[in-house]
Amino acid sequence: MMRPNATSSSSSASPTPEASAVDGMDRRQFLAAASTAALTFSVVPRHVLGGARHIPPSEKINVAYVGAGTQGLRQLMEALPREELKIVSVCDPNADSNDYVAWSRHEIRDKVRAFLKRPSWGEGIEGCRCGREVGREIIDSYYAMNSPSGSYQGCSTYADFRELLERESDIDAAYIMTPEHLHATIAVAAMNKGKHVIQHKTLSNMLAEARLSRDTAARTGAATHMFCAAGIGSTATISEWIADGAIGPVREVHNWSSRPFWPQGMTEYPQDRPPVPKGLDWDLWLGPVPHRPYHPAYTHAVFRGWYDFGSGPLGDMGNYSFYQIFKILNLGAPISVEAGRSQYWAIVDGLWVKQENKVSFPRACMIHFEFPARGERPPVDLYWYDGGLRPPLPKELEADGQDMPTEGLLFVGDKGKLLADFIGGNPRLIPSAKMAAYKQPPQALPRPAGELDQWIRACQGGEPSGASFQNIYAFAEAVCLGLIALRFEKKLKWDSAAMQFANAPEANALLKREYRKGWELI
């Protein structure tokens, strides 16, 4: 076990890490061994691995926090006050920089100031500051505030999650807040080390990795959770109304998002070659993705627009709404998926030339999923829209003199329509007269605990989280299928049991990524 008071020997990051002594072997040898142990997937019986340990409520859950960007720091300030958790290490390939993208000027700085009760925190620093050293500073400062001595320096830092997993042997769990291309790589490695896992959405931007994460969680017994708005009570409310027959059997669902807020629709990779910023280990940031020169167009919040690193608006926001839709309607795997997308043409030498996009998600799209009947429930068509696209204004809203919401969720049944906010909040029957006349049924379904509460309960040996990797896999699969459909001009027929497209063998190549040597998962 290593729990230094200062940064560990491996935590300094540079574009090309130089070898340094680590317990008698140079760093490259150490990481090669760590990589093999952490990344290789093998079907080892759980009794051999030992599995993930349930932590008694009387003990703290020792957490390694992986990913200290903007969303990572926001979530860090949610996790630190939890008495059940002790964050003992923070990992990020970026040490400390102020080039991140936030929702507003000084958003992260002001949140940290309020959280730490330090009005001068970040004084004189322009831009949005994040990175592992910022994470360590927040962790140590928060625990010092709540320590009798008023001081604390117990958080170790690492650039490489593999080294963290090898050296921090008393870690109970990994809290993963990295870009999406690293989710499965880190989660599978942690679970194979007997750690519980909680992570940001999506499960993975590659279907084979999402399935591997699910199967690894089942094999190791890890308590897992993916953040996907699994703690809102309106999901049970909508379920009760639909079961009550408020709109009759549901045959269509429409879900639309105002995303993307980041660049999309790029038709080629950046061509210029800016230097790698000091403190960023570009090789570690790339992880399993084949090497390419560094460019800021890939990193921080803008990773979402690229096929290799993100999952577009569907992966960013669809997990939140799909959790509710799949739970309410008891959906499994779709049987088909079809997408339409925005296009871009340019004038080249006096000619109109379509700009083929093979590297990034479109600026706007619509995706149609077909689901089979479930018992007495009829088949369902699910429509996703983003980039400003949305379904036509329902006549029921028009009768009420209302415009279509910028974002929303619409259930269409044989006897009416139910409209809600994007992830299911504020549900109402439309038109308003129908809602006013509706006698709501009594509450019959339990309301969920908060998302962190669900995961902590599972780590302590309680019931699995409603958003465990096994429980959310069905819609995680649908998200990945939608990402693939965006790259084809045809309706794709999906066979989930065989894990292949029945009518598009060329699409099967996109079920897994092309791995960089040494990072293979599958």
Q: What can you see in these coordinates?
A:
The protein has 522 residues and is α/β, with parallel strands linked by helices. The chain has 2 domains: 48-226, Rossmann fold (3-Layer(aba) Sandwich), CATH 3.40.50.720; 234-263 and 311-447 and 469-511, Dihydrodipicolinate Reductase, domain 2 (2-Layer Sandwich). It is 30% helix and 18% strand. The protein is built from 16 helices and 21 strands. The chain has helices at 27-39, 46-49, 70-79, 107-116, 132-145, 161-167, 183-192, 207-220, 234-243, 282-286, 312-329, 395-399, 432-437, 451-459, 469-485, 505-508; strands spanning 21-22, 25-26, 61-66, 85-91, 97-100, 128-130, 156-158, 173-176, 196-199, 224-226, 250-256, 336-341, 345-348, 351-354, 365-371, 380-386, 408-413, 416-420, 428-430, 492-495, 500-501. The strands form 5 sheets. It has a 9-stranded mixed β-sheet with strand order 19-18-17-11-16-15-12-20-21. Strand 13 (345-348) and strand 14 form a beta hairpin. The longest helix has 18 residues, at 312-329. The two termini are 30 Å apart.
Query: How many beta-strand runs?
Result: 21
- Beta-strand content estimate: 15-25%
Pick out the low-confidence regions: 1-49
CATH class of the largest domain: Alpha Beta
Rough outline: globular
What is the CATH architecture descriptor of the largest domain? Answer: 2-Layer Sandwich
CATH-assigned fold name of the largest domain: Dihydrodipicolinate Reductase, domain 2
What's the helix count? 16
Mean pLDDT: 91
> Span between N and C termini?
30 Å
Q: Could you say which structural class the secondary elements and strand pairing correspond to?
A: alpha/beta
Count the domains. Answer: 2
